[in-house]
Specification:
Layout: E1 2-4, H1 17-23, H2 31-36, E2 50-55, H3 64-75, E3 80-85, H4 90-95, H5 100-118
């Protein structure tokens, strides 16, 4: 999985119309839907490896989303890599991605090679973390 500026925990959106329209109500009205719709709550030991890249100055999808996902991946011992993009916000990180695309491709290449080397029954059980 490659996640870039991804809203991982929708419970962070207490206000704003977009998430409310998407989920069908305010967080206070349907807290279970917000939790169920948040990718961070679906991480398991069997989850595939994840590459996360996130802009440090993202104000649309705050870095807390990535931090929560990193914590969930650590807790479930899912392999992952993190690339923090300094000095950029949500849109500028996509328009001017720096080396994030190359890093993501490198991650996918390494993971695919590892899968081929280990065979179909490999166990994804180690992680690497990063902080903003």
């Amino acid at each position: 999985i490659v996640m870039g500026g991804a809203p991982s925990d929708l419970t962070y959106y207490a206000s704003g119309n977009l998430v409310q329209q998407f989920l069908g109500g305010r967080r206070e009205e349907i807290p279970g839907i917000y939790e169920e719709s948040s990718p961070v709550n679906h991480v398991s030991r069997g989850s595939p490896p994840v590459f996360i890249y996130h802009a440090k100055k993202d104000r649309l999808v705050r870095p807390e989303h990535a931090v929560s996902m990193i914590a969930a991946l650590d807790e479930k011992q899912v392999r992952h890599e993190v690339l923090w993009i300094p000095g950029r916000g949500h849109i500028s990180a996509f328009l001017l991605p720096g080396n994030s695309v190359d890093e993501a491709i490198g991650f996918l290449d390494r993971e695919n090679r590892e899968t081929l080397r280990a065979g179909p029954l490999r166990n994804a059980s180690h992680s690497s973390t990063g902080r903003p």
